[in-house]
Here is the input.
Amino acid sequence: EVLPALVERGIAVEAGQGWRLCAEALRQPILDEVPDAEAVLARVADRAAPGRPQADPLRLEARRSLDEGRIAEGIALLEGAPPVEPAMEAERLLVLGLLRWQAGDLAGSADAYARAGSVGAGPAVRARSAIGVGIVALLTGHLQEAIDRFAEGATEASIARDPTREAVAWLDLCEARSL
Here is the structure.
């Protein structure tokens, strides 16, 4: 089969009920096709320059745990984490919300999503937070709360100029209103 061969080569990982490609495995083939790969790499490095948010290794490891089905490990990693600046904390809480949802802890998921939206992050995070809380509210039978959160998510996504997330929020809102 193709997928086991991709796993052996580090190109894909089994993630719960499906498969995911590893972005790092695609890096070199993509760079081989770029006319000025060094300039592209320099621009990427500049994005991590002082004053710009750095990638959060802890969040990335927790997300990897989720992708690989190690849900409890990801939850423990984030719950035991030291405090960080608000934007980074919000991103960690969004991943924690997803991990808790996958673990079946809907109350914990809603709490993590709600906290993500209240730690001083911008509209893009508030949109993701509201949509997450809305999904959990819908799953737990709190229809009006779901409708309110999806509407909030659509508004925040619009402010953040994130048309994809705005569309998701509107679709969720329409689904909730139809119930």
